[in-house]
Here is the input.
Amino acid sequence: MVNISIHLRPEKKYMINLIGTYEGNIDDKGRVMLPVDFINQLKTAKELKNGFVIKTSVFHDCLELYPMTEYSNTIKEINILNRFVAKNNDFIRAFTAGIKQITLDGTARLLIPKDLLKSAGIKKPVVFSSHVNVIEIWDRSKYYQTIAKSKKNFAKLAEEVMGKLGNKQIQ
Here is the structure.
């Protein structure tokens, strides 16, 4: 008997790298202008035409705005989970709870569903913050409180997360 194994190359993922933190204001209908710098970055990446998925964050009281390609990449990873394992089903349900597909209108505004604004506790002044390949949308006061708290522990966190990557350490 001959044992043949086939090694498939992992599919190369295209990733967007968004840069910037910007403030904005939501109107009474839940509309907000997407910052021009994000529009330009997404236009260059040819992502604007595909739209977005918006959802509540897993770890914070904010929203996550995924360009459609990035959401599709995330869902591909989630689809690997065995749905006959209860914990996997619970995770998928929680991760996808309340998600909505949205697009920019003709004036580059996003209409953020009111249920998502309420669940994240977002009021009128907001902060858009790049989170590598996703844009976080925060209530402005919550964002600055979270940043202030994390600054206190950032040096220790950076060492724990990034300290063992690549470069040799001096003993």
User: Anything to note?
Assistant: Residues 1-10 have pLDDT under 50 and may be disordered. Strands lie at 21-25, 31-33, 52-56, 63-67, 100-102, 109-111, 125-131, 134-139. The radius of gyration is 19 Å. The chain is about 35% helix and 20% strand.
